[in-house]
Design a protein that fits this description.
This protein is of the alpha/beta class. It has a single domain, classed as Rossmann fold (3-Layer(aba) Sandwich), CATH 3.40.50. About 30% of the residues lie in helices and about 20% in strands. The chain contains nine helices and twelve strands. The longest helix has 23 residues. The structure holds 6-phosphogluconic acid. The site of 6-phosphogluconic acid (6PG) has 15 residues, from strand 5. GO terms for molecular function: 6-phosphogluconolactonase activity.
């Protein structure tokens, strides 16, 4: 069963009562954006994250998408990456490659992963340099209001602490305004060294989708989306706020359970 909630200013919520249906919804959404972007710009520039998002995207490797999506036009970045070898079990590149990208006819040279032989700091600068080349060539579009890249789609997960990409609560990386890609060496979740897109890049995208599932994330989702008490903590998920883009939350009913009005909602109707 499906439920759609339009919030005042926190985007749309697409709510499903099980992750299988949520995966179907997510695959359809990504395929539609890919088609629109290829029609408009000739390419589709997408950024992935790690975590459960990758499993949820699995439907894209199946019919009809495997044959209907124009995979050769995809240019793939990572919104965040752990600074480990590409074959390391913690690598977001490996997670996406094994679970997804190896099953899709994407072009290997269109996969923009980090240089895993560098330090976190150098890997971040190197990744930003790589991204600047694609923005220069307009393979990745550019924001009308800043010089930031304007991805066609950035896909994020959100932790139960409210982190998105590798932007953790109260971390100074959240304040980064100049760099497109920054690094951290003290991630509260292992591994400690990571690189991450900064908020200006995330918020310059044409579309941002955040996938949130499970009861353990219900409070974080409430803090990210609902009209909350003024003294509530401002978690990173709340700071995702595309300036000229569209924000969509893909959530299951467990994660939605603390949203205002949700307990009275009819799963087949939009709710206020
Ligand atoms: O590299 C990372 O750690 C991820 O990009 C991270 O931001 C992830 O998306 C969230 O932690 C949610 O992960 P789950 O969906 O697995 O909880």
């Amino acid at each position: 069963m499906a439920l759609l909630k339009h919030t005042k200013d926190r985007g749309d919520l697409r709510i499903r009562d099980n992750v299988d249906d949520l995966g179907i919804e997510l695959a359809e959404y990504i395929a539609e954006l890919s088609e629109a972007s290829v029609k408009e710009r000739g390419v589709f520039a997408i950024a992935l994250s790690g975590g459960s998002l990758i499993t949820l995207m699995g439907k894209l490797c199946e019919a009809p998408y495997k044959k209907t999506v124009d995979w050769a036009k995809w240019y793939i970045y990572w919104a965040d990456e752990r600074v480990v070898g590409k074959n390391h079990v913690d690598s977001n590149y490996k997670l996406a490659k094994d679970g997804l990208l190896s099953k899709m006819p994407v072009i290997p040279s269109h996969l923009h992963s980090i240089n895993d032989s560098l330090s976190a700091e150098d890997a971040a600068s190197d990744y930003e340099f790589d991204l600047r080349q694609l923005v220069k060539a307009r393979t990745v579009a550019v924001s009308e209001v800043s010089d930031c890249p304007k991805f066609d789609l950035i896909l994020l997960g959100m932790g139960s602490d409210g982190h998105v990409a590798s932007l953790f609560p109260n971390h100074m990386a959240l304040d980064e305004k100049d760099e497109w890609v920054t690094f951290i060496t003290d991630s509260p979740e292992p591994p400690p060294e990571r690189i991450t897109f900064t908020l200006p890049v995330i918020n310059s995208a044409s579309n941002v989708a955040v996938v949130v599932t499970g009861a353990g994330k219900a409070e974080a989702l409430r803090l990210a989306v609902d009209d909350v008490e003024p003294d509530s903590p401002v978690i990173p998920g709340r700071m995702v706020d595309p300036t000229n883009g569209k924000l969509v939350w893909f959530v299951d009913t467990a994660a939605a359970s603390k949203l205002e009005g949700f307990q009275f909602a009819d799963l087949d109707q939009p709710f206020a």
